Amino acid sequence: MTANPRSVVWDTSCFIDYFNANKKGQRTDEEMGGLESVANSIDRGETNLVIPQAVFFEYLETGAPESQFTRFERFAQRSNVQVVDINSVISLAAREVRIQTAEFGFKIRGVDAVFVATAVLYSVHQLHTFDRDMLRLNERFTVKGQNRRLTICKPGLSSDDPLRLPGLFS
User: Fold this and answer.
1) Angle CA(160)–CA(164)–CA(168) in degrees, nearest 5?
2) Rounded (10°) angle between helices 12-20 and 29-43
3) What is the CATH number of the domain that holds 67?
4) For residue 159, is it within any domain?
5) Range of the domain at 80
């Protein structure tokens, strides 16, 4: 395992496409390659994955076969994967995300605000998504106490975003 692994949050779309092997054909080969790259980095212990508990609820709503959900659950049990409960701190931070997002002239779903809040509160390096509305929020949220903004991008580890220390909203 890497001494200071990179950390990421995947939103539900990443899990659906990864475990569904892009059967709906919504992703390009490059996008699926990015997902595979991150998944392989997680397998090698080079990347830590933070999963907001909301993913489990959204994943259940997809109607995915039980075998696919079981694979997802096993993936979430790895030692370098942290499942995060949605508590009052995250809920209040998600509310703040929605308020700030409205100030930017955007509107995002409550569950997407939970992904952003979790990424900021857990000081991950990147939030991975295919959601166009969330991608528009790239580098709009500052991690408190740090001189960096949260990178929200499609999966792939091509960013040279260096490792940082923990923090909150600024």
Assistant:
1) 125
2) 100
3) 3.40.50.1010
4) no
5) 6-153
Token pair, residue 16, equals 């659906």
CA 120 to chain centre: 10
pLDDT of residue 156: 84
Q: Please check whether residue 169 lies inside any domain of the structure.
A: no
Q: CA–CA separation, 42 vs 97, rounded Å?
A: 27
DSSP β-bridge partners for residue 153? 128
Q: Is a pLDDT exceeding 90 seen at residue 79?
A: yes
Structure tokens that stand for 65 in this block: 């076969």
**In the block, which residue shows the tokens 């959900």?**
69
Q: Which two tokens stand for residue 72?
A: 């997802």
The model's pTM: 0.86
- In this structure, which long-range contacts are made by residues 65-69, counting pairs with CB atoms below 8 Å and at least 24 apart in sequence? 68/19, 68/20
Please write the tens of the pLDDT for every residue from 117-130: 999 999 899 999 99
